[in-house]
TrEMBL record:
Top-level taxonomic group: Bacteria
Pfam families: DUF192
InterPro entries, A to Z: DUF192, Saro_0823-like_sf
Name the UniProt record assigns to this protein: DUF192 domain-containing protein
Annotated source species: Parasphingorhabdus litoris
Length: 153
């Protein structure tokens, strides 16, 4: 099954972002924003990510976005462990697609994925989440397989 990390169905409910200090802050796309930490050795890299939980949110992903700040991203949590397959259809910017195991460790990273590509980008084993960040950012920060990812929904 291809998860179009940038697929067809739209999401968002037209809500505007809430207060910067509010607990249920929403992105411009109407998705909940949460804090996520990637631990690489003794270094913690903190991102603000949009939470794509529903099939519609996951299908839309980061499609049509023309910019992704270095400390931003999107997390795709799954309700069960599974093989993950993403593509870059309608995705304007390159992304690092990070596959996350059930214990929070990074299984693999597909770095600098090609915008608009229909080629599947797949995990090497079943995972419970996928994180997307700006293309090349994982390498810049030294994020690699085995590092730990933590977030709360």
């Amino acid at each position: 099954m291809l998860i179009a990390c940038h697929a067809q169905a739209g999401s968002g409910d037209g809500k505007t972002p809430q207060s910067q200090t509010g607990e249920n802050k929403l992105s411009e796309a109407g998705l909940k924003e949460i804090s996520l930490t990637v631990r690489s050795g003794s270094t913690a890299h903190i991102f603000t990510v949009e939470l794509a939980k529903t099939p519609q949110e996951q299908a839309r992903g980061l499609m049509f976005r023309t910019d992704l700040k270095p400390d931003r991203g999107m997390i795709f949590p799954f309700d069960r462990e599974r093989m993950a397959s993403f593509w870059m259809k309608n995705t304007v910017i390159p992304l690092d697609i990070i596959f996350i195991r059930s214990d929070g460790t990074i299984e693999s990273i597909a770095a600098n994925t090609t915008p608009y590509s229909l080629e599947p980008v797949q995990s090497g084993e079943p995972v419970t989440a996928v994180l997307e960040i700006a293309g090349g950012r994982a390498d810049e920060l030294g994020i690699s397989a085995g590092d730990k990812v933590d977030w709360q929904q």
